[in-house]
Amino acid sequence: MNKKLLYVIAAIALCGVVAVTYCHSDGKCSFGECSLGECSQSESSAVSPTEDYSQFVVLSDAVPDAILEIRYYSTYNFVGDRIDGYEEPIAMLTKQAAKALKEVSDDVKSQGYRLKIYDAYRPQKAVDHFVRWAEDLQDTRMKQYFYPDLDKSVLFDQVYIAAKSGHTRGSTVDLTLFDMQTEKELDMGGTFDWFGPESHPDFCGNPETGEYTGDNSKSPSEPKRSITAEQFAHRMILRKAMLAHGFVPMDTEWWHFTLKNEPFPDTYFTFSVKRR
Question: What average pLDDT score do residues 226-241 get?
Answer without folding.
Answer: 98
